[in-house]
Automatic annotation (TrEMBL):
This is Na+/H+ antiporter subunit E. Belongs to the CPA3 antiporters (TC 2.A.63) subunit E family. It is found in: Cell membrane. It holds the Pfam family MNHE.
Length: 163
C-alpha cells in the first residue's frame, strides 16, 4: 500500500484542492483529482531528502553566534564600501574557487546559506564531481585569505556538526 500511496495525506490534500479549484464533484473531476493525488505523491518521493543526522549538537550554538557576528560585520563593511566618503574608489570584485572536503548535503546547504546571507559574498555554483564551490566576493583583496576563511571558519565547523 505504501508503494501505491507513499504520501497519503498529501495525495488526499492535493485531490481535495483540485476539487475545490474546479468547483465540481462530477465523475470526471473526481477521476482527475485522484490522478493528480496519486501522481503528486509519486513525484514527492523523488524529492525526499537523503538520510542525515547531526553528529555534534554542541557546535550549533557556537556556529550560529559566529554567523550572526559575521553577518553584522559584513553589513558594516559593505555599507562602508558603498558609502565611502572622498569619492568612489574602484573595488575589485571577483570569483574564488574553493576545493571542499565536506560531502554532507546538509552541510553544503548550510554553507551555501551562510555564505549567501553574508553581505558581500554569494555562493555561485557547486561542482559535485570535483567537490569545489565558486564564490563571488564583492571586495576581493586576497583569494587565499578567502579560501582560508571558508575552510577554517565555516567548513571545519560544519564538518564537525554534520560529518
Amino acid at each position: 500500500m505504501r508503494r501505491l500511496l507513499p504520501f497519503p495525506v498529501f495525495a488526499v490534500s492535493l485531490a481535495a484542492l483540485w476539487l475545490l479549484l474546479v468547483g465540481s464533484v462530477k465523475p470526471g473531476s473526481l477521476l482527475l483529482a485522484a490522478g493528480f493525488g496519486l501522481a503528486g505523491g509519486w513525484m514527492l518521493v523523488s524529492l525526499t531528502p537523503p538520510d542525515g543526522r547531526l553528529r555534534r549538537l554542541a557546535g550549533i550554538p557556537r556556529l550560529l553566534g559566529l554567523v550572526l557576528v559575521e553577518v553584522l560585520r559584513s553589513n558594516a563593511d559593505v555599507a562602508r564600501i558603498i558609502l565611502r566618503r572622498g569619492g568612489w574608489q574602484p573595488r575589485r570584485s571577483g570569483f574564488v574557487r574553493v576545493r571542499l572536503q565536506m560531502r554532507s548535503p546538509y552541510g553544503l546547504a548550510a554553507l551555501a546559506c551562510i555564505l549567501t546571507t553574508t553581505p558581500g559574498t554569494v555562493w555561485v555554483e557547486y561542482d559535485s564531481v570535483e567537490n569545489t564551490m565558486l564564490l563571488h566576493v564583492l571586495d576581493l583583496i586576497d583569494e587565499e585569505a578567502w579560501v582560508g576563511i571558508i575552510k577554517d571558519r565555516w567548513e571545519a565547523r560544519l564538518m564537525e556538526i554534520f560529518e
